[in-house]
Design goal:
This protein is mainly α. Helices cover about 75% and strands about 0% of the residues. It starts with 18 loop residues before the first helix and ends in a 23-residue tail after the last helix.
C-alpha cells in the first residue's frame, strides 16, 4: 500500500472498506464487549464478595493489571518491531483467553480468593503488555498512510461502543446469574480476535520494515528523548493515565459508597460515559491531521468536567456529567495516539508505541493504589478531585513550556513535528 495525499477529511468508516481491517475491527468489537464485562464483574467481585468495599484492594488489583506494562512494554515494543505483529497478537490473545478462563473457573467453582485475583490480574497484565504495542502498531499495516488516523479513531470507537454494551450486560448478568458467568463470557470473547487474525489475507498487509537498528529497547528511548514534540504528548498522557483515568476505581467507589446503588446502576455508569467516548471516537475517525492544541484543549475540558463530577450532588447528576467527561477523555487519547503514530518512522513504531503505552498505562500501578488510599482516608469524591487537580497542573505546565520555547508568544500548535518545539537539527 502506498501513501496517498491526505485529504482534509475522509469518510467516517473508510477503513472498513478493507477486508483485513474489517475482520480486525469486528473481532476487536466482540472482545471489547467481553473486556468491559470483565472489568465490571472483577470490580464487583473484589468490592462486594471478597472485601467490604475495600478501595485499597481494588486499587491493588488495578495496579497489578498495569504494572507489567510499565516494566515490560519497552521490550514488548522491540518484539513488535522484530517479529510479525499478527503472529505476536495470536500468542497474546491466547494468553488472555487462558487467564480469563482461569478466573471464571475459580469463581464458578466457589474457590476464588483475593490472592487469586491479584495473581491472575498480574499474569493477564503480562500478556497485555506484549499485546498492546503489537496491536497499536499493527493497524497501520492494514491501511494506507492517509487512513491511519481513521483506523485509530475506529479502533477507539469499537472500544467505547463496546463500553456502551459491556457494562450494562455485565450488570444484568451479575444480577441474574452472578459474577462467574460474566467472567466466562469475557474469556470466550477473545476467540473472536483469534478467528479474525487467522482469517486475514497476509498478501493484503503492508508490514513495516523489520528494524535493523542496533540498541533494541534503548534505541526507542533515545529516539523519543530526541523528539521533544513526542515527549510533550507523553507527559500529558502520563498525567491523564496516572491520575485522571481511574474510573474503574472511582465509579466503583461512587456507586457503592456514595450513591449506594446496585450492579445495574453501576454498569449504567460505564455505558453512559461511553456515549461521550463513542462520540469522540466517531469525530476522530473523520480527521486526517492532529494538532497539539486539540490535545491540550481536550485535557483542559477533562479537568473541568471531572472537577464537576467530584462535586455531583446525586447519582443522576453524576451520570449526566459522565457524558462530557467521556468525550474529553477520549479526545485526548485518540489525538495523542494518532499524532505519535503518524510522527514516527515505521520501523520504530513498535518501540515508540510501547514507550507511549508504558507511560500512559504504567502510572496506573502508582495512581490506583494511591487513589485507593485517598478514597479510604478522605472519601470517594477525593479520588476524582485529585485526578482533576493533577490534570489541571499538566495543562498549565505544558502551556507555560510551549510559551517559553516560543519566546513567550503563543505557538501555532499545528501538527506534531520536531520543529514544533525547536529541536536541534542534529537530533532530527
Amino acid at each position: 500500500m502506498t501513501a496517498l495525499a491526505a485529504p482534509a477529511r475522509v469518510p467516517m468508516f473508510a477503513s472498513l472498506a478493507l477486508r483485513n481491517y474489517r475482520l480486525f475491527f469486528t473481532g476487536g468489537f466482540v472482545s471489547n464487549i467481553g473486556t468491559w464485562m470483565a472489568r465490571v464483574a472483577q470490580d464487583w467481585l473484589v468490592l462486594t464478595v471478597l472485601t467490604n468495599n475495600s478501595a485499597v484492594a481494588l486499587g491493588i488489583v488495578t495496579g497489578l493489571q498495569f504494572l507489567p506494562t510499565a516494566v515490560l512494554a519497552p521490550w514488548a515494543g522491540s518484539v513488535a518491531d522484530r517479529l510479525p505483529k499478527r503472529r505476536v497478537l495470536m500468542v497474546t490473545q491466547l494468553g488472555l483467553t487462558v487467564t480469563g478462563l482461569a478466573l471464571a473457573a475459580l469463581v464458578l467453582g466457589g474457590q476464588v480468593q483475593l490472592w487469586h485475583v491479584y495473581l491472575l490480574a498480574f499474569i493477564q497484565g503480562c500478556a497485555a503488555a506484549f499485546d498492546g504495542p503489537a496491536r497499536q502498531s499493527f493497524a497501520p499495516e492494514m491501511v494506507p498512510t492517509h487512513l491511519i488516523a481513521n483506523s485509530v479513531g475506529l479502533n477507539t470507537t469499537s472500544f467505547h461502543a463496546a463500553r456502551l454494551v459491556g457494562p450494562a450486560v455485565a450488570g444484568l448478568t451479575i444480577a441474574w446469574w452472578g459474577v462467574g458467568p460474566a467472567l466466562l463470557l469475557n474469556a470466550m470473547s477473545f476467540v473472536a480476535v483469534l478467528a479474525a487474525l487467522v482469517a486475514m489475507d497476509p498478501r493484503e498487509l503492508a508490514p513495516a520494515p523489520v528494524s535493523r537498528r542496533g540498541g533494541g529497547v534503548m534505541e526507542g528511548v533515545r529516539y523519543v528523548r530526541n523528539r521533544p514534540d513526542i515527549m510533550v504528548v507523553m507527559f500529558l498522557v502520563f498525567m491523564l493515565g496516572t491520575f485522571g483515568l481511574n474510573f474503574q476505581l472511582t465509579n466503583s467507589l461512587m456507586a457503592t459508597a456514595v450513591f449506594d446503588v446496585g450492579p445495574e446502576e453501576f454498569g449504567l455508569m460505564g455505558s453512559v460515559m461511553a456515549i461521550g467516548s463513542l462520540s469522540a471516537g466517531l469525530l476522530a475517525a473523520r480527521r486526517t491531521r492532529i494538532r497539539l492544541r486539540l490535545v491540550v484543549a481536550a485535557l483542559a475540558a477533562f479537568t473541568l468536567s471531572t472537577a464537576l463530577l467530584a462535586l455531583s450532588p446525586g447519582y443522576l447528576w453524576y451520570l449526566a456529567l459522565l457524558l462530557p467527561t467521556g468525550l474529553a477523555a477520549l479526545t485526548v487519547m485518540t489525538a495523542a495516539n494518532t499524532s505519535v503514530q503518524m510522527a514516527v518512522e515505521p520501523e520504530m513504531r513498535g518501540r515508540v508505541m510501547a514507550l507511549y503505552m508504558a507511560i500512559f498505562l504504567g502510572g496506573t500501578p502508582l495512581g490506583s493504589p494511591l487513589l485507593g488510599w485517598v478514597g479510604d482516608a478522605w472519601g470517594p469524591r477525593w479520588t476524582i478531585a485529585i485526578g482533576s487537580i493533577a490534570c489541571g497542573i499538566a495543562v498549565v505546565v505544558t502551556v507555560l513550556y510551549l510559551l517559553r520555547r516560543n519566546g513567550w508568544e503563543w505557538p501555532r500548535l499545528h501538527d506534531l513535528d520536531p520543529a514544533l518545539v525547536d529541536v536541534p537539527d542534529e537530533a532530527r
